[in-house]
Amino acid sequence: MTAAVTDDPRALVAQAQAGDERAFAELVRLYADRLFRFLSARGVGAEDARDLVQETFLRAWRALDRFDPKYAFSTWLYTIAHRLALNLRARESRRPHVPLAEDAVGAAAQPGEADDARPAGLWAVARENLAERDYHALWLYYAEEQDMRGVAQVLGVTSLHARVIVHRARARLAKLVTADGAAAGLAAGHAP
Amino acid sequence: MTSRPTMSQIEQRLRADAAATPSRAPADLVQGVIAAVQATPRERREPVSSPRSWWPLIPALAAVLAIAALVMRADPEGATAPVLTAHPPAVAPASRAPLPPVSTIADPIAALMPAPTKPLRDEWQAVNADAAAACRALLACVPSRPRPAN
Question: Which of A14, A128, A141, B142 is the most exposed place for a label (fewest CB within 10 A)?
Answer without folding.
Answer: A128
